[in-house]
Amino acid sequence: MNALRAVFIYEWKRSLTLGRMGLWLAMAAFPVMITILIRTLGDSENQIDIATQKSTWSMTLYALIPGVCVALSVLLTAAPAVASELEQRSWAYLATRPNGIFWLLLGKFLVSVTWGTTAAWLGTAFSVALCGMDEQLRMLLSLSALSLLSAIAYSALYMLVGAIFPKRAMVFCMMYTVIVELVFGSIPAVINRMTVQFRLRTLFVNWMPFDERMKDESVFQYVMIDGSSFMQCFWLITLSILFLVAAIVVAHRKEFTSATEGDI
Amino acid sequence: MSSDIAIQFQSVTKLYGKVLGVNDITLELPRGAYGLLGPNGAGKSTLLNLLTGQLLPTRGTVRVLGLNPRNNPDLMRRIGFCPGFEGMYASISGLEWVIYLLELQGYAHRAARKLALDCMELVGMVEGMYRPISSYSRGMRQRTKLAQAISHEPELLILDEPLSGLDPIGRAQMTDLLRNWIAMGRSIIIASHVLHEIEALTQSFLLISGGRVLASGTAEEVHELLFDVPLEIYVKCNDLRRFAAKTLEANLADSAKIRRTNFGDEVVVLSTRHASRISSMIPEWMKDDGLEIYEIRTADDSLQSLFNSLMKIHRGEL
Fold first, then answer.
1. CB-CB contact of B242 with B289 (8 Å)
2. Which of A112, A215, B114, B222 is most buried per CB count within 10 Å?
3. Of A14, A96, A263, which has the smallest distance from its Cβ to B52's Cβ?
4. Could you give the CA distance from residue A84 to residue A180 in angstroms, rounded to a whole number?
5. pLDDT value at position A239?
6. How far is A239 from chain B (nearest CA, A)?
7. Phi, psi angles (nearest 5°) of residue B18
């Protein structure tokens, strides 16, 4: 555990540079700015009922916070977990420590989760306060929990993609997110149940203030499941563990050396 | 395998796609100090990466201290590795870097800090250890790299070009440090392409080129290997012309020249493939012809001459 603690503390210290803190703040500010824009530029003449307004705000904040804010935050931290060590040629020092790769990836995973979640929580606090809806505590708690689950799942997923394709980690992570999470995740077929988005969406409908009438619309029948929240959490955690274990196995099995061709 | 064996390669080949890293290497090295010599691209780094388990052999087996090095935490506790490249985190201090790696080794923070401080002192890095690595000179970086390799007191130290970038004083200090390390009975393998670096530390070495181990053993053993390959031999005696004539008459030399050395002496320079036969004939010539031999030596008696000759043999030039 000394090794895990060391990686976690060191990676967090690294995150406290001016540039990285700026990024973290930008991630937290993103949903807040959009909320302010919607509130400022929204069409107040076109009155809609409260239930629909609440559902619309719930969907918007869900898309902005556990969706964009968390996914982007963990993309920046988890995807280059392997690549950054290879690029700065520090891999050899870490790989020649007892279980060094295991502790490195686990530590970076925890940093990614905490980095993404804290940015999301800050964004949630301000966005919920600014959206002007009632049931703010419910929204706050639900979005915070969804952000945490989203950060865990996407950190593990991006770590796996980053371990498989270290040279273009971020590009492949983006491609995976768009193709699998967004496209496949929205296809009304069994395949969408294999995505993180499907589970998060179901939790979102279960936890957030949401118009019950909308749940009956056919599209919602296919892109989420009428299941218990416990089962969705179970599947999300299971998927995350699988992704993380796979990332560690891939990193162990691959022959990453910092040697260049000339170093043969 | 005996626990006295530090390194064992059994028919090890490593291919990078179609590029050969090392080629069918079989060797067994008891615990001790070894120099791994070879030009750039010879396969030294591949060999070290195989030893540290970062690479998996395409064919054959590697054992280090009796263990498979690939993903083996038990072995990683017992070895220290100093790579040939830098790769340290530039934004933190040398002390923090060594502490971080000791913590990854499993030490608690306090113990890691104490060990790191001791080690930084040992490598002469007390003054700069709190500064960020980015501000270090090449020599300071080398010392820090060495500190992280020896800080957990490994049984086997694997060093890739450890003296590269050090100034003469630093080089001498580091050589002393490594000599002390060897004197404590710990094993060490040092890769270098600078011969005198190795000569100052050990007389046991491996010569590697083109992914093959060309020769191994002590300097004397390799000299024996070379005894019957073309060599230039300098002979100082009382009758240079007579000695030259004797070797040519006996067809033991391809050519014989009389040359004046920088010190004003005259010597016979023989180009011969039969050095061992010449040496066996000398007592007879001394007895029969009254020759007095004062000195016999090869043109360059350093490791460099061995290395150059082996390279020529390997390339088919000899």
1. yes
2. A112
3. A96
4. 25
5. 94
6. 25
7. -100, -5
Alpha-carbon span A106 to A108, nearest angstrom: 5
* Residues on chain B touching A261 (C-beta within 8 angstroms): 16, 19
Which ipTM value was assigned to this complex?
A: 0.85
| Chain A residues with CB-CB distance to B109 below 8 A | 2, 5-6
For helices A196-207 and A229-253, angle between their N-to-C axes, nearest 10 degrees: 150
How far is C-alpha A20 from the geometric centre of its chain's CA atoms? 17
Residues 6+ apart with CB under 8 A from A1: none
Q: What is the pLDDT of residue A146?
A: 96
Query: What are B298-318's pLDDT values in tens digits?
Result: 665 545 566 667 767 766 766
Angle at B267 between CA B219 and CA B242, to 5 degrees: 115
Residue the block writes with tokens 């995976």: A176
Q: Name chain A contacts of B208, Cβ cutoff 8 Å.
A: none
SS3 at position B114: helix
Q: What would the pLDDT profile of B1-22 be if each residue is shown by its tens digit?
A: 456 888 999 999 998 888 888 8
- Res. A91: pLDDT tops 50: yes
Q: Distance from CA of residue B23 to its chain's centroid?
A: 19
User: Per-10-residue mean pLDDT for chain B, 318 residues long?
Assistant: 80 88 89 85 89 93 94 93 89 93 94 94 89 90 92 93 80 86 90 77 84 78 63 85 91 88 85 79 87 77 61 68
Domains and CATH numbers, chain B: 5-216 (3.40.50.300), 227-314 (3.30.70)
Does the beta carbon of A1 lie under 8 angstroms from any beta carbon of chain B? no
The minimal CB distance from B56 to the residues A97, A255, A262 is found for: A255
**Separation in Å, CA of A263 to nearest CA in chain B:** 6
Q: Assign B204 to helix, strand or coil.
A: strand
Could you give the dihedral angle defined by the CA atoms of residues A124, A126, A130 and A135, in that order, rounded to the nearest 10 degrees?
50
Please report residues of A whose CB lies closer than 8 A to that of B113.
none
- Verify whether the Cβ–Cβ distance B86 to A89 is below 8 Å: yes
Q: Residue B257 CB: number of other CB atoms within 10 A?
A: 12
Return d(Cα A232, Cα A91) in angstroms, integer. 36
Of the listed ranges A56-60, A84-88, B108-112, B214-218, the one predicted with least confidence:
B214-218
